[in-house]
Batch of 2 targets.
Target 1
Amino acid sequence: MPARTSAKASRPRKPYELFYWPGIPGRGEYVRLALEEAGAPYIDVARERDTGMEEMTALLEAEGTKRPSFAPPFLRDGRVIVGQVAAILFYLGPRLRLAPKSEAGALWTHQIELTITDFVAEAHDVHHPVGVGLYYEDQKKEALRRAEEFRGARIPKFLDWFEAVMDMNGATKRAPHLVGKSLTYADLSLFHTVDGLAYAFPKTMGRLLRSRPLVSSLHAAVKKRPSIKAYLKSDRRQPFNENGLFRHYPELDK
């Protein structure tokens, strides 16, 4: 399959190579959304190459690099290999024009992204509170207790922080941004996190978003952006499922 590109790409270039597990959107989706929004050419290696999984495994085992990533996702741009979502987006941000030009603005965007990373980790740990190597069915009792605290305290705390950040940024329902006056990768990441939580906890998020108008508006606005809208309708967008970060178990959502 050829690498995707669009009229938004400023010049022809060698495609970025994104390494992530096939079959789930997962953490790799945060990187995909930035690449798709920017119209940047990229290859989703494990999905698009017959040897993709072997290539990814080799890099994880340090056969192909002296700086191996702990786990996917990681991005290869020529000789540069970057792992961890926040680090990948910090690298891509200025290259895709999805980050402020000033050092202070770039670091603030990175800080927001790291907070989103914390939020996502807590969402994942709701259905795997004891250990990632155990099945959900092996830790359902603990998951029920963890879900109650996540729904009642942690989701509201994170959403309130993002709402306050947007308010201090001067965001409005018509122009909802976390940083500055234009879209950044942090906006895309918050969109996907809210989208994932709405899948996993539809009842909870339905209630909470009603009193967080800026976060709700950001989610709606990103979903309508032409590049993102087209991507969400394409077969490149993998649906949420019960093997990924955001999982819908009805008993965990009240």
Target 2
Amino acid sequence: LQCQCAYDAGPGEDLVSMYHLVKVSDDVDQPEEVRVKVFIPRDDPRVPSVYWIWKSADFQERESYDMYGIVYEGHPNLKRILMPEDWVGWPLRKDYISPEFYELQDAY
């Protein structure tokens, strides 16, 4: 697994979880590559985690969860990684309405 990421296809459209896989063989100049896209309904965005196959998906799936709200079922530690734990909503969804302000609590 070279990369796992997600994107929003548009307001009212599906969310997409994308996996870029690379097979490196003796011929390093021409690695075999494939990109797999999983289209997920935005009203219940759930997809099985690939963490148990590729451990490198750990933080990448957590980021996709944090920004888009895609739940990776079976992930051992699926929690926010970039936004505060109490943040409401999924900031990179195209239908996200950003709050006017965010108050830091327990900052001192």
